[in-house]
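At this stage, I wrote out one protein, both as residues and as discrete backbone shape codes, and that material follows here.
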Amino acid sequence: MTSLVLIPGLVSDDIVWQPLAEAVSARMPVHHADVTRDSSITSMAERALDETQGPIIAVGHSMGGRVAMEMARLEPQRVRGLVLANTGHHPKREGEEIKREAMIALGHSDIGRMADQWLPPMLDPARAEDTALVERLKAMVLRAGPQVHERQIRALLGRPDASAYLADLTCPILLVAARQDGWSPIAQHQEIADAAPDAELAIIDNAGHFAPVERPREVTAAITAWLARRFGGTDA
């Protein structure tokens, strides 16, 4: 039976995909990937593949989407499908390293301040004052801590150029973009959809970069509907 591999993003954990896990766990095996221990996207992908057996559908959020794509590149015969939410495909951009290094330094100085600076632009502006949501996400960042934050930032700085192999990803792909995501905009997801042979785009309204946490019901519904339509929902 095909397993669903759920991959969180930067300084994120199981809460990102927990609603989806609960929705599908009665019908298919679910594995929460650990992306906290490796300092490259490729190593994260290799670990997720090593920790599972048989065919999989990889579901990644943000950095986790890059890990999912790398899994499909490494073992296309095992990866039957991809769900890529709030993610990107470009290599490191000019000037990116300076900003990332500043965030690493801030994280080591005060991870709470780093979270306070980083989180609001990640959200739908209408939710930026949602104290419960922000505190839940901040607690997640604090659980990760500065060492994991640095390790994952360095993995992102050295990330593969996924655009170089998107055309080779022949498995079905669902791209989940959010209307208010200023970090990974809809147009970026459309570029992936246009480059991959079998991809479709779902747009979530009233959500930012943390769409699976901001709008869990809508994101889960989009993914489970796609799973049912493309794989019968259980045993691809």
